[in-house]
Design brief:
It is a single chain. It is built from two helices and four strands, in the order ββββαα. The protein is α+β, with helices and mostly antiparallel strands and about 100 residues long. It has one domain. Strands 1, 2, 3 and 4 form a four-stranded antiparallel sheet that branches. Strand 3 and strand 4 form a beta hairpin. The longest helix is centred in the last third of the chain and has 15 residues. It is globular. The relative contact order is 0.22.
Length: about 100
Amino acid sequence: MEGTNAFVLDGTLLGFRSLIQVIDDFHRNHRLGLVIEAQVAKGRLSVPPLPLMENLTGRSVTRQLYSSLLGYARSKSFNPASRLSVECIRELVSA
């Protein structure tokens, strides 16, 4: 996951959990998530870190993770339990 930045989830509801959670440095102790998913407005959303989708050539592990995430998002199993507002998503991806 070199070159990726996790989403800082401190401002989300306490019960919100990322699909992939990251352990932060003990100096900051932020709640971090690498892939977030939520019900947003009338739809469902999955947000991986942007560098995950860039330059997949020669990165077989990253390519497989990306493929697995796409397959999951297209499946009937993709049913996020948490709901986030459009504003919250905007804040998470712009930070």
